[in-house]
Design goal:
Chain lengths: 477, 436
């Protein structure tokens, strides 16, 4: 490997600064008291506290799963802090009341909560450590009846919706980390799009972990009523710290008849340094349920985190429902990723598409793990899966673990996977055209990922492409 | 679940199992202890996720002391494929010299039963027996090692080429009802030698038994071994077969596994490409009906540079049958220039048939070319329509397309007689006609 790929994959993490802001943090450790404290701080109704406690009691009976193809030191759940909030956050009337230090943080991250996004027509909800610090463009959204607010706010303003859908796709008993999240989740975003409404704006949430030794457990719930449609994007960053931080989020999507939900993620949590010290453990459960004629589409660009472990899934419950998964996962240095999707075909004429692109560099280990399951009643189910892996350098690994389970003969499934190194001949060609090795590689990588990037909203597609360039920096030796 | 076998093992150890050179009872004991620790695999084991061996585990299969057989050559004829081949016939686990013929083999080539080899060349056997078939994580291999009764030892000396295939036939009949059989095959092909082996597993009638076979094949530098496995056990029987291969430099191992029998079968084919330039071709076909369950698991380890592996497995599933394919390709960091390709295709003929497929790639080297593909579906509607538009009745069109689906896999069989025989089986099965 030439040194130019290596330099290319090793640019420094630009979002690693710490914001010095006073925060309201509860003591470390996890007991029923912790949960009561979180719930009390958020002034939650009784039913939600009960739900959290049920989840916590279930969590105590579960053991941490170790089947993914990743290795990490044991997590001490009692050493974590489960709630941390910027102190100045009071119920805000407008963004002007937000702590200016916090707003500067978001400016640094390139997210101007005020003007910029108004111009670009994106509504932003920003989550700093555990709480939402501001949601923009509320007026425009409420004019058409779209609810876009922090989860904590939704509990108070739309309790009936939260109560109806919370846990309906990912029950608290689903898995170890989902149970933990259900017990201690702090905040997150809530989206509700009423019947027949096409959400006029792209919705976007920016997550930021700031405090040290804090786990972030956000919970996002998106409900699209009949015939509604919405596109949602989340972005994530965290400061550079030498200890590992746990991020165990849950995202639930309910797509009722004829609706369409598009969920895009650009995940750039701190990945640890070049020796694998520090970084975020990103253990996330994301799942959507698509009813008749509904469509759920997941797009993810995963460049950050020391360990990524997530499988955005679609339960194709209704007839003619559609599930899509487009993913680019990049690992460099000591990063590990075990990611993929699950497509569960239950309804008739259901269709799913999986396009996964894995790029491994440095000592990174990248695994695609996916399940396509066709149940006996799912007549004429159709799946197409393509997983391609690219290896840059000879110390990394690329692995593929697809599970294909078919119990209906009318199903048609195709699965293709390929693994290859970055093409010497392609690099040579680009160089002969006057590009340097770095540009050649970013061009080739961008081409490799094109099928996924084209699914992202425009401005984020550009951001993702740049991000990819940054995280691969220095991987060519 | 393993407890009932403890008594059997103790009885066997003080009886037939205690015979042979001193190292053998030690090996058996070690294997049995390992089996007791492991227990039978469950669906919680990743490698057994889609295959439940509960029907095997909940029964206690007895050790078999076969009596004399009345089986004649003419009764056996339908299973012999080609009578001119060298042949060893085992009936209920015991060699039947009257039904066998292997005296015509080139003098340098040694083919003997395991018991004979243990008497005559115990040191050579000690060196090879169990050297490949590891039982640390494999309960069935451990069970075979603990109880192995007899089997075949093949040694092909350097540069020796055996032209005529060697056919090893395991016939089981009603005598073996409720019994477990643990045959062992040890093959050592020394550098630049060549041999073709055909292993047939035949169940006569409806006996229910456990066939737990283990084969160890060492393919030397520049050597070639063609290994065909034809599994036509009784549809009440259980078959677990493990083949473990190691390949030297520039060697070739070509395997074909045909599975049409047994209520539940599991075939493991593992090969290690340990020398540069080696090639492994693993192909197979399974054809199931009723409530049959067949599971194939292949594992190709690329441990040296410039090796190639090719896999094609096809399955035809009818009735309420369940087909499983689990193929893994591992590429070691030093195995640069690896070229791996794996394909699994399944055809579903009925509403109740099920397929589970798990093709896996684990790659730690960067200069490699590896692909895998899997498809699952029913007969192509447009192809059916085309044939019907040409005046071919629907049933015939279906049979024709099913036969064509199978042919792609069967074409990789390089022995004409065997290919024709298996093609005939597929043809007759789907056209409901008998070919003369």
């Amino acid at each position: 490997m030439s040194s130019s790929i290596e330099t290319l994959v090793n640019k420094e993490y630009a979002y690693g600064f710490v914001t010095d802001i006073e925060s309201d943090t509860i003591p470390r450790g996890l007991t029923e008291e912790t949960i009561r404290a979180i719930s009390a701080k958020k002034d939650e109704p009784e039913w939600l506290l009960d739900w959290r406690l049920k989840a916590f009691r279930r969590w105590l009976t579960m053991t941490e799963p170790h089947w993914p193809n990743v290795t990490y030191a044991p997590i001490d759940y009692q050493a974590q802090t489960y709630y941390s909030a910027p102190k100045s956050v009071k119920p805000l009337q407008s963004l002007d009341e937000v702590d200016p230090e916090l707003l500067r943080t978001y400016e640094k991250l390139g997210i101007s909560l005020t003007e910029q996004k108004r111009l670009s027509g994106v509504a932003v909800d920003a989550i700093f450590d555990s709480v939402s610090v501001g949601t923009t463009m509320k007026k425009e959204l409420s004019a058409v009846g779209v609810v876009f607010c922090s989860f904590g706010e939704a509990v108070h303003s739309h309790p009936e919706l939260v109560k109806k859908y919370l846990g309906s796709v990912v029950p608290y008993s689903d898995n170890f980390f989902a149970a933990l999240n259900s017990a201690v989740f702090s905040d997150g975003s809530f989206v509700y799009v009423p019947k027949g409404v096409k959400c006029p704006l792209e919705l976007s949430t920016y997550f930021r972990i700031n405090a040290a030794d804090t786990g972030q457990f956000e919970r996002t719930l998106i409900v699209a009523e009949e015939g509604a449609s919405v596109s949602y994007l989340e972005g994530c960053t965290a400061p550079k710290r030498a200890t590992n931080q746990l991020h165990a989020a849950v995202v639930e999507i309910v797509a009722l008849d004829d609706s369409s939900v598009k969920y895009s993620t650009v995940q750039n949590w701190y990945a640890g340094d070049e020796n694998g010290v520090g970084g975020i453990y990103n253990f996330v459960t994301k799942r959507g349920k698509a009813f008749t004629n509904a469509k759920i589409s997941w797009t993810q660009v995963e460049t950050g985190s020391a360990i990524t472990w997530k499988y955005p899934s679609v339960i194709l419950q209704g007839d003619n429902s559609v599930g899509e998964f487009y993913s680019v996962a990049v690992v460099n240095n000591h990063q590990q990723a075990d990611t993929g999707t699950k497509m569960i075909h239950i309804g008739k004429n259901t269709k799913s598409t999986i396009i996964s692109k894995g790029i491994s560099a440095g000592k990174g280990q990248n695994s695609y793990r996916g399940q396509v399951k066709v149940l006996p009643k799912a007549e004429n189910a159709r799946n197409y899966t393509q997983c391609d892996s690219m290896l840059i350098g000879n110390a990394c690994g690329a692995h593929t673990f697809p599970y294909i389970e078919v119990a209906n003969p009318t199903a048609t499934l195709e699965h293709e996977a390929s693994t290859s190194k970055i093409g010497e001949d392609q690099i040579f060609y680009c160089k002969s055209r006057g590009l340097n090795a770095e540009h050649a590689i970013s061009l080739i990588v961008a081409g490799f990922c094109k099928e996924v990037f084209k699914e992202l909203p425009m401005e984020f597609a550009l951001e993702a492409q740049q991000l990819l360039g940054i995280s691969l920096e220095g991987s060519v030796g | 679940m393993t407890a009932p076998y403890t008594d059997q093992f103790e009885a066997y150890a003080s009886n037939g199992g205690g015979e042979g050179p001193a190292w053998l009872p030690t090996l058996r004991k070690r294997a049995f202890d390992r089996f007791s620790d492991l227990g039978f695999p469950t669906t919680r084991d990743e490698d057994w996720h889609f295959t439940s061996v509960t029907p095997i585990a909940e029964r206690t299969f007895k050790a078999l002391k076969p009596g004399p057989t009345t089986l004649t050559l003419s009764e056996l004829r339908p299973w012999l494929v080609d009578e001119s081949w060298h042949r060893l016939v085992f009936v209920n686990g015991q060699l039947e010299p009257a039904l066998s013929q292997f005296t015509e083999l080139p003098a340098a080539v040694q083919v003997s039963t395991l018991s004979e080899a243990l008497r005559e060349e115990p040191e050579w056997v000690e060196k090879h027996l169990g050297s490949l078939a590891a039982f640390d994580k494999a309960a069935f291999t451990a069970l075979n090692t603990a109880f192995m009764q007899d089997g075949v030892v093949v040694r092909v000396p350097k540069s020796e080429v055996v032209d005529t295939p060697l056919h090893i036939v395991h016939v089981v009949d009603a005598q073996a009802e409720g019994a477990a059989l643990h045959p062992r095959l040890v093959v050592v092909a020394e550098p630049l030698s060549q041999i073709t082996l055909v292993e047939s597993f035949v169940g006569l009638g409806k006996a229910s038994y456990l066939m737990n076979a283990v084969a160890e094949v060492a393919v030397g530098n520049g050597a070639r071994v063609d290994h065909y496995k034809v599994q036509r056990e009784s549809t009440e029987a259980f078959h677990v077969g493990t083949t473990q291969v190691t390949q030297g430099r520039d060697s070739m191992y070509h395997s074909f596994s045909y599975a049409a029998g047994a209520a539940l079968s599991r075939t493991n084919i593992y090969t290690r490409l340990a020398g540069e330039g080696g090639e492994a071709r693993l192909n197979g076909m399974y054809m199931l009906d009723g409530v049959q369950h067949a599971d194939h698991q292949t594992f190709v380890e690329h441990l040296a540079e410039s090796c190639a592996s090719r896999e094609l497995y096809k399955g035809i599933l009818d009735g309420s049958s369940h087909g499983v394919f689990n193929g893994k390709v591992y590429v070691d960091p030093i195995a640069q220039k690896t070229d791996g390709k794996q394909t699994n295709k399944a055809l579903l003929l009925s509403d109740r048939a099920r397929v589970d497929t798990k093709p896996q790639l684990e790659i730690f080297a960067d200069d490699v070319k590896c692909t895998h593909g899997a498809t699952i579906g029913r007969i192509d509607e447009s192809a059916l329509f085309y044939l019907q538009s040409r005046g071919i009745p629907l049933e015939n069109a279906k049979a024709l397309l099913t036969y064509a689906f199978a042919a792609e896999a069967l074409e990789t069989i390089e022995i004409d007689a065997l290919r024709v025989e298996l093609e005939r089986g597929v043809f007759e099965r789907f056209t409901h006609t008998r070919l003369e």
